[in-house]
Amino acid sequence: MDANTVTAPPLEIHDLSVAYDRRPVLWGIDVEVPAGKLVGIIGPNGAGKSTLIKACMGVVAPSGGWVKVFGEPLDHAHRRVGYVPQRESVDWDFPVSVMDVVLMGRYGRLGLLRRPGAKDREIARASLDKVGMLPYANRQIANLSGGQQQRVFLARALAQESDLYFMDEPFAGVDAATEAAIVTLLHEMRDRGKTILVVHHDLPTARNYFDTLLLLNMRLVAFGPTDDVFTYDLLQRTYGGRLTILSEVADAVRQRG
Amino acid sequence: MTDWIPAFDPHRVFVEPWTVNVSLKLWIVVMGFLVLTTCGWVGQYLILRRMALMGDAISHSILPGLAGSFLIGAWWAGNGSASGEGGARGSVPMFLGALVAAVITTVLIEWIHRRSRVKQDAAMGTVFSALFALGVVLITVFADHVDLDADCVLHGEIGFVPFEDYFKVGGREWMPVPVARMLVVSLLTAAWIGMFYKELLVSSFDPGLATSLGISAQRVHFLLMAWLAVVIVSAFESVGAILVVAALIVPGATATLLSSNLPRIFLWITLHAAVSALAGLHLAVWLDCSIAGAMVVAGCALFVLAWAASSWSQWRARRLMATGAPPEPEERTLTAPPTPSSPGRSAA
After folding, report:
1. Looking at chain A, which terminus has fewer C-beta neighbours within 10 angstroms, N or C?
2. For residues A203 and A249, is the Cβ–Cβ distance under 8 A?
3. How far is CA B239 from the centre of its chain?
4. Which of B198, B204, B335 is opposite residue A115, by nearest beta carbon?
């Protein structure tokens, strides 16, 4: 590892564009995320929020531009990146236990033909304990509630022991207790120097949860500290003249004052 | 009406098969078991990936591969030694032709649904019917010149398995060649699933996560489809389409009803395969009907049985909940007390 990779930012996105079926979804995104930030990715439906993190994770192929993780292409840095997909993206009737799902977070560190060992199980148990799901370790995932499912996904991300995390709507459809627990966990992770990018839907809470915001609407509208970016002007530009959203924006900004 | 269905004579149905010409029945049951269990294991991954009909699609679309390799073989033989059609229908070229067709099917389906607005199921339907039709055209165009028709490709008969050549080692006849071949494929399949268990698991459950971990979900998909083709083709020639297509889905669907634990599901599939093969043989002896068809009917009867059992246990759990103590409420704090697992699902 040379000096460049030591000091390189956790995430560097340059001129990234993505198109689905010839329809552009993301256009010319340029961002450099510094270490130790908890970043909220905010924007209206169809703004390309999920697509942005999927492109960063190599799950969708970009049509232009590049992404570097700790100064390297993603192929060389898989172990340093953790991913929490949308909860609805998987089949929760799948015949696996909570423990099996959390152990999947360790797969990236095991080579071909190797199975998770005692140390991996220990890490998985510790991760489950952190999200309060250890008592459920041997349950089948089909028996979990929405909030519990989300916690299992977070435990799996913790078990990955990465430095940079992408989370796709971790607050969608969870109860208030779980939401509070997740926020506490995210702050803890950030304080340990992790960099976390979170796709978030709810404008009023975004201001309290994240120290940095990335406002997105196909193009990058703004990126910076929440206090600088969470302004009426920038939010209005992000959400374009949508009336219902605009009143929400006004409310959110008024609360702030 | 009564003389349409043969009388049920317990001695003839249950005792005679195992007293007269035992090896004949034994190899049929063993072959049925091997096909059902191997296809069942691979098919379980198709079920988990919600592409259960992929097996159906590939079993149709290998037809042009079989026809193509046969025609090339016949042409080669005709050019070289003019020895006629005999040598061309060897297993190896047919096998390779079918494998190529299966891989082409998979690539075409992926390609169409990635590059256009056509969804995966529609892409699947288009590709397999197109290739199947191409196969039918090839066969009928050249039907006058070669000894091959769609029937003989699609309708292998498991009842003929004991009459095939025997696999010999040291002068002793061990087992019919198709059984030996299927045994090798079964062992390879088990080894393959054991070796790549975690890659198959994570790419089936959460392809996005798999890719982000550096396990290419797409590569796993192509490998699985290629192996599916190997299994289908090995089974096809000797037992026919109906048994293969059913074997890919019915054991897995039955096992899914009985357990929600993947290793246990694989055990149920194996058990289901053994019982269907055995029960199917006896059914065929009684009704004097197609053996493969009888095995599938027996397998489906087991599915209905499993369905009834799981519905009954669900009903009982619901009644327990209604009459007994209320279930513990969903936890409100981070450190929840342990709750006993609910009796509802894991009734296996």
Report:
1. C
2. yes
3. 11
4. B198
What pLDDT digit, counting tens, does each position of B188-222 carry? 999 999 999 999 999 999 998 998 888 888 889 98
Sign of CA dihedral B63, B65, B68, B71: negative
Angstrom distances, CA of residue B23 to CA of A52, B31, B170, B243, B285: 63, 12, 20, 21, 15
pLDDT at A80 over 70: yes
H/E stretch holding A249: helix A243-256
Q: Considering only A114-128, B41-55, B266-280, B329-343, which range has the smallest mean pLDDT?
A: B329-343
3-state SS, B247-306, equals HHHHHHHHHHHHCCCHHHHHHHHHHHHHHHHHHHHHHHHHHCCCHHHHHHHHHHHHHHHH
Q: What pLDDT digit, counting tens, does each position of A180-236 carry?
A: 989 999 999 999 999 999 999 888 888 889 999 999 998 999 999 998 988 888 888
Quick one: closest CA in A to B192, which residue? Answer: A113
- pLDDT-derived band at B144 (thresholds 50, 70, 90) equals low
Q: Is the predicted pLDDT of residue B346 greater than 60, yes or no?
A: no
Q: Which residues of B touch A136 (CB under 8 A)?
A: 338
Q: Average of pLDDT values for B42-65?
A: 89
Interchain pair A95, B265: CB under 8 A: yes
Q: Are A186 and A209 in contact (CB under 8 A)?
A: yes
- Domains in chain B (CATH in brackets) are 10-317 (1.10.3470.10)
pTM for this model (two decimals): 0.83
Q: What is the pLDDT of residues A130-179, one digit of tens each?
A: 999 999 999 999 889 888 999 999 999 999 999 999 999 999 888 888 89
- Among the partner-chain residues B204, B212, B333, the one whose CB lies closest to the CB of A83 is B212
**CA closest to A166 among chain B residues:** B212
User: From B112, which residue of chain A is nearest by alpha-carbon distance?
Assistant: A21
Instruction: Give yes or no for residue A249 having a pLDDT over 70.
Output: no
| Cβ partners under 8 Å of residue B53, min gap 6 | B121, B124
| Structural domains in chain A plus CATH codes | 3-256 (3.40.50.300)
The count of CB pairs under 8 A between chains A and B is: 106
How many angstroms separate the CA atoms of B132 and B126, rounded? 10
Query: B157 is written with which tokens?
Result: 């008969």
Name residue, tokens 């988990």: B48
With CA atoms as reference, report the closest residue to A86 among A53, A124, A119.
A53
CB contact under 8 A, A132 and B334: yes
Q: Is B27 helix (H, G, I), strand (E, B) or coil?
A: helix
Q: What residues in chain A have their Cβ under 8 A from chain B's Cβ atoms?
A: 21, 54, 57-59, 75, 78, 81-83, 85, 89-91, 93-97, 100-101, 104, 107-108, 110, 112-113, 115-116, 131-132, 135-136, 138-140, 142-143, 145, 147, 156, 175, 177, 181
CA distance B197 to chain A (A): 9
* A152 CA: distance to closest CA in chain B (Å): 13
Residue B262 touches partner A, C-beta closer than 8 Å: yes
ipTM of model: 0.85
Selected residues 116-155 of chain B with any CB under 8 Å from a CB in chain A:
116-117
Residue with tokens 């005999």: B86
